C-alpha cells in the first residue's frame, strides 16, 4: 500500500439528533443517514505527493444505517489541487491503501458502492472549533453553517464533547448544531436543518487514527 498521513480539521453535518447516534453505536434518528463533510488538510502526504493545504468535501446518503450499506457518495476536491493531489485524495477518501476497518474512510468506502463522479470546485472554509462556529462553501454543490447547540432553557451556548478513545475518525470532537443546503451535484440533502454537527481535528494514516 502507498503510505499516507493527513493532519487537519473537519466539519460534519448529518440528519440525526445532536450527538449523532452512530457515535454511540445505535441506529440513526430517522432510520437513514445523510451527511455533508468538509476537510481542511493542514499537513499531509500520499507517498511523495504533498497534500499540504488541500481541501476536500463529500456528500453521503444511505437508505438505512451506514453498516447496512448501499450508500451513495460524491467527492469534491478543491479545484486548486493538481492531478496527483486529486488522485491521492480520491484514493484516501475511498478507503484505499488503508488497513481493514482502520479509518472512517475505509468504512464509508465499503458501505458506499454507488460512487458518483468526483467534482473539482473551489472550497472555502472558516472554522472556529473552540466556539463551535463555522461555515464552508463547496462551489455550487453545498454549503454548511454550524453554531453552538442552544441550552434548552436559556438558549445560551451549550458545550458538549464526544470522546472516542478507540474511534476510527477522531479522538475528540466538539458537538454543534448544523445545517446544510445542497444546490448542485448529484445528491440533495433534505433533512439537515439544525441537526447534529461536529468539529474535529484529524490525524490519520492508513493504519488508523494517530493518538
Task: Briefly characterize the structure.
The chain is mainly beta and 211 residues long. The protein is 9% helix and 45% strand.
Question: What does this protein look like?
Answer:
By secondary structure, the protein is mainly beta. It has one domain: Acetoacetate decarboxylase-like. Helices cover 9% and strands 45% of the residues. It is built from 2 helices and 16 strands. The strands form 2 sheets. Strands 1, 2, 3, 4, 5, 6, 7, 8, 9, 10, 13, 14, 15 and 16 form a 14-stranded mixed sheet that branches. A two-stranded antiparallel sheet has the order 11-12. Strand 13 and strand 14 form a beta hairpin. The protein starts with a strand and ends with a strand.
Descriptive tags:
211 residues; mainly beta; 14-stranded mixed β-sheet; two-stranded antiparallel sheet; 2 helices; globular
CATH topology annotation: Acetoacetate decarboxylase-like
Overall number of domains: 1
Measured by DSSP, the beta-strand proportion falls in over 45%
Succession of helices and strands: EEEEEHHEEEEEEEEEEE
By DSSP (H or I, 4+ residues per run), the number of helices equals 2
Q: What's the overall average pLDDT, rounded?
A: 97
Helix coverage percent of residues? under 10%
Q: In the CATH hierarchy, what is the class?
A: Mainly Beta
**Mind telling me the C-alpha Rg?**
16 Å
Structural class, please?
A: mainly beta
**Which geometry do the CA atoms define?**
globular
Distance between the termini: 22 Å
